[in-house]
């Protein structure tokens, strides 16, 4: 019980203070779990991050879940997720509640939030490309992935891009020959892990069929957000186009409402996947409101929990394979390409219409990259800038 409460307490504090996106979250986790509490070694933490980057879903949340499982079992993993996501879920539900019934389509502050999204995604592309696509082969994979995502904008194409990038990495990239670290802590048997992986696959295949056979917004909502969490590699920013294509064309909300939530998600701590709380709140017919928000959050994070719990028992064997390490490098480069395509559509095309818009985006980008200001500060500055643009 003491370990469970400890996991919840530490993860909740991280959920309150972890601004800056998944890469920043991983730095916060390293400081807390590795350097301060010594729950795992530096090498084991790096391998755990590699596993969660390979799995689809929110990488930082998956790392937290895995550390919670290693520390206090499956319930520890669940409490680690609850603690880390709860603050941002509550804040985004409150944001959606304040906005309900208001016509914010032409609001200047909303336009400023949309412009802030341009700067934040551009920063993510910049940083990830420098780290994950800095060679000729990986850059080629990233560019080809971006081209494919732009020419055929479909969630299923994204999954194909990830698979093709992994295949190219396996065939064309040199494996990382670094010495393996000690085994990662895990309290789950291989049989139990196999059950979790099977549940992930069954839900992924069965939910679309049930949605077709059984009408109802609740099932459609759960299917859309479960699929988003199950098919997206690379963390929060890459889920943006998949979510947008799931909720806007269906008529559940407008582009303006969607990007308002995205901007708000940048201003709160914790994982970007908690954007689902806002989207579920404002989406279409019932269930919406708080029930819709909580349903969407549960659906989008469920694949992450099933995959982490299922993969941990097998990871210590798989990670020793050089071919797998090569495939992982290709997948990371493909993620950079998908994110680059998302920067253009829908983020850029929805926000940048004039030279003044571009000027504000440049200011926001400079504040993030050169002055290293926290994203929530940049979001606030951009919202004020959007209001100012209405008077120019």
Outline of the structure:
It is found in: Cell membrane. With 392 residues, the protein is an all-alpha fold. It has helices at residues 2-17, 22-36, 42-54, 59-99, 108-132, 136-151, 155-172, 190-213, 217-231, 239-247, 255-266, 275-282, 289-318, 322-351, 355-369, 375-389.
Features:
16 helices, globular
How would you portray this structure in words?
- The chain has 392 residues and is an all-alpha fold.
- The chain has one domain.
- The chain has 16 helices and no strands.
- It has helices at 2-17, 22-36, 42-54, 59-99, 108-132, 136-151, 155-172, 190-213, 217-231, 239-247, 255-266, 275-282, 289-318, 322-351, 355-369, 375-389.
- Helix 11 runs antiparallel to helix 12.
- The chain is globular.
- The N and C termini lie far apart (59 Å).
- The mean pLDDT is 85.
